[in-house]
Specification:
Elements lengths: L2 H12 L3 H20 L4 E3 L3 E8 L2 E4 L6 E4 L2 E8 L1 H7 L2
Antiparallel strand pairs: 1-2, 2-5, 3-4
Length: 91
């Protein structure tokens, strides 16, 4: 599902017009991103948890040259699905 399809679903299910549905979807994504940037978890009941995990610096190899390289430490987003979401997918 693309963002435009998600916006269309939100518009249909909430009886909003496309413009307002787009604003709602964008605001939701922005709120999640801002919370994660500040180090908070985002818990959406019956759906799951968005969190940030620290990935440590590691060693790797350049696939073209075979030369050893250092991969920088980074913060990466993680998603843990909630039980109702898992159940819905396996029903």
């Amino acid at each position: 599902m693309k963002k435009s399809e998600l916006v269309a679903e939100v518009a249909t299910s909430t009886e909003l017009n496309q413009k307002d549905a787009t604003k709602a979807v964008d605001a939701t994504f922005t709120a999640i991103i801002e919370a994660l940037k500040s180090g908070d978890e985002v818990r959406i009941s019956n759906f799951g948890v968005f969190a940030v995990q620290q990935r440590p610096e590691s060693q790797g190899r350049d696939p073209r040259s075979g030369e050893a390289i250092t991969i920088k430490a980074a913060k990466v987003p993680k998603f843990r699905p909630g039980k109702p979401l898992k159940d819905a997918l396996n029903a």
